[in-house]
Each structure stands twice: as structure tokens, then as C-alpha cells.
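Box S1 | Example of a co-folding query
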Amino acid sequence: MFDAIAPRYDVMNKAMTFGLDSYWRRRALGLARLRPGGRVLDLACGTGDFARLLAGRPMSPIGLDYSAGMLAAAQAGSAPLCQADAARLPFADGTFDGVVSGFALRNFSDLEATFAELGRILRPGGRVALLDVAEPRLPVVRQLHGLWFNTVVPRLGVFSSDPQAYGYLPRSVAYLPAPRELLELLERAGITSTRHHLLSAGVVQVLTGTRR
Ligand SMILES: C[S@@+](CC[C@H](N)C(=O)[O-])C[C@H]1O[C@@H](n2cnc3c(N)ncnc32)[C@H](O)[C@@H]1O
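Box S1 (continued) | Returned holo structure for S-adenosylmethionine
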């Protein structure tokens, strides 16, 4: 699916989020509190937005994604890219000072295995920031968001390279476990001091933590 939507992924992202996706990634990077000079993995990097942001800072980013199509469309600045499965990362233990990920949690078929890999490849003290969509709690925002996300966005899919794919979005949000469960999964993977942050009236969430 991601191979198919890759050519117009960035344009669709901007349209669906009114361009807020870049702001959310920058906020997530702030919450990550990454050490300058650190080696940082952009997990499920897609077209490389996080990797590019990191490459513009004093950091050593690497982008990783499963989809060859997304990697081919990626503009990740100077960051090297690699194709692999998030649940079986091709890196030695303790390789990274940080891991960031944008809008990918909903797509991991095995969250537990993926988080276990994060715990493995991070050095002790390494930081995690995982950004994804959320379901807002405030009733008015929830209603408007539901209308946009469940009704309008799937229809906007006709402008993408695979109209079916955008019908999958609402289902993928329903798949995502509740915040408490996500934090517990992270803790089980050796990530401590976990926190759950809501941005923009709760339409997106960021999970942060530190490798024990
Ligand atoms: C919605 S896109 C997000 C892309 C990018 N991180 C962003 O912020 O726009 C989700 C990405 O997750 C990738 N993905 C899904 N499952 C994966 C897995 N098991 N391993 C690596 N990447 C995966 C997809 O190929 C896709 O590029």
C-alpha cells in the first residue's frame, strides 16, 4: 500500500493536516530532548521528513522503512536510508542515542516486537519520541475530527495514487492501543520515564521515554 501511495504521499499529508504535520514533527523533536551529535533513527521514515529535519541539526540521522516506494520518493537530506522491518532491525545493540517515528505506530503489525527492538538498539539513556494521530477527547473537537478523518479524508484519497489506501486510515486509528497500554508496552521494552503528550487539542499524540 505504501509503495502505491508514495508518489503523492507528501502532498496528501499536507492536505490532510493543513500543513500541521511539519509543526507536529518539530514539536515531537523538542519533546525528544535529543543530545546534539547523537545518532538518531527515523523509524518508518517514509519520505524522510524527520530524517531531513534531523540532518539540518547537529545530529547523525538514519532513515529506515519497509517500503521501497517510500524510500525511493524520500528526500532525507544527507541522512542515509535503509530498507528493513521495524520488528527486526538490522542494527547492533545500543547503536542509537535516539529513535523518532512519525505516524507509523498504527501501521506496525507487531507493536510489542517493534518496541522490544527499540529497547535493544538504544543505548542506556537514549531517548524515544513516537508521534501519531490520536482520538481527541473534547466532544466538539472529537466530532469535527471524526467528520474530517472518517468522512472527508477517505474521499480525498481520489487525489492520491491509490484511492483505496485512504479508506484504511480510520481503521488504522482504531487499531492503535490506548495511551496507557502503549506506555506499558514501552516500559516492558526497557523504556522508562515514559510520558504521553497530546498536541493540537488532542488530535495527535507523542510518546516519549528514556532507555533504562
Ligand atoms: C504513514 S507513513 C509515515 C511516514 C513518515 N514517518 C511520516 O512521518 O510521514 C507509515 C510508514 O510506516 C512504514 N512501515 C509500516 N510498517 C513497517 C515496518 N514493519 N517496518 C518499517 N516500516 C514500516 C510504511 O512503509 C510507511 O512509510
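The two ends are 36 Å apart (CA to CA). The first helix runs from residue 2 to 5.
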